[in-house]
Amino acid sequence: MSLWRRVLAERRGLVLPLLIALAVNVAVLALGVFPLQASVTGDETRAMAVKRELLDAKRLETQANSTRTSQVRADQELKQFYSEVLPASHAQARNLLYLQLRVIAQQNGLAFSSGTFDLEPVDDSALVRMSLNVSLSGDYSNIRRFLYDLETAEEFFVVESVKLGPSSRRDGGSLEIVLAVKTYFIGVRR
Q1: Cα-Cα-Cα-Cα dihedral sign, residues 96, 101, 102, 107
Q2: Cβ distance 138 to 110 under 8 Å?
Q3: 3-state DSSP call for residue 118?
Q4: Which of 45, 54, 128, 163 has the CB geometry, 3.0–4.6 Å to 187, for a possible disulfide?
Q5: Mind giving me the DSSP string for 85-106?
Q6: pLDDT band for position 55 (50/70/90)?
Q7: How do residues 88-143 score in pLDDT, each as one tens digit?
Q8: Is the pLDDT of residue 40 over 90?
Q9: pTM for this model (two decimals)
Q10: Is 123 left (phi over 0), alpha (psi -120 to 50) or beta?
Q11: Strand partners, 175
Q12: What whole-number distance in Å separates Cα of residue 82 and Cα of residue 38?
């Protein structure tokens, strides 16, 4: 008889309950603990995913708040630009382009030859673009000072093109400058 059979035969009352207890423990381990352990691992994984989603949501909220703040600030600055920098009407825009340009030209010793206006609505906006094509003549140093004064003027001018060439007048070393200058104003809303 082998050792295990002899122990089983002599201590049956003690070994049988131990074997049953061992089987119950293995069954509890297999049917209860391992599934719960897998469930806890899954819950931890889901908790980490939720934390990542929460961090992403907070980051998106911060970006949205920053964007909203920037948009509000841009709207305020745009309103300020419209009200304080741009001419308020067609007449003011015309005076700005024609009279102010003429004053700057005279201050720099340039002769005003001709000028033509053009109005054009800006797409998807209440703004109207007013263009002035103007021809001036004078010597080179005066033209340079004129362009500098025009570019540094407080008024809102956009110099779109500059063409410099010999003057059509026969007065010596005179040059002719043809400018396309624009400004904007808020037109009548439709």
Answers
A1: positive
A2: yes
A3: strand
A4: 128
A5: IS-SSHHHHHHIIIIIHHHHHH
A6: very high
A7: 888 888 888 888 888 999 999 998 888 888 888 888 888 889 898 998 988 889 99
A8: no
A9: 0.59
A10: beta
A11: 138, 166
A12: 65
Predicted pLDDT at 169: 61
Q: What is the pLDDT of residues 153-186, one digit of tens each?
A: 888 888 898 998 876 665 566 888 999 999 888 8
Q: Which of 95, 112, 105, 115 lies closest to 183 in space, CA to CA?
A: 95
How far is residue 152's CA from residue 6's CA, in Å, rounded to a whole number?
113
Tally Cβ neighbours within 10 Å of residue 63: 10
Banded model confidence at residue 189, pLDDT cuts 50, 70, 90: low
Domain boundaries along the sequence of the chain? 1-85, 90-186
Nearest to 93 by CA among 132, 122, 123: 132
Place of tokens 């603990």: 33
Beta strands in the chain (DSSP E): 111-121, 127-138, 158-166, 175-186
Per-residue tokens: 6: 């002899």
Q: What are phi and psi of 159, to 5 degrees?
A: -85, 110
Structure token pair of residue 108: 């720099």
Alpha carbon distance 190, 186 (integer Å): 12
pLDDT at 190 over 60: no
Q: Are 171 and 184 in contact (CB under 8 A)?
A: no
| Strands ordered across the beta sheet of 158-166 | 111-121, 127-138, 175-186, 158-166
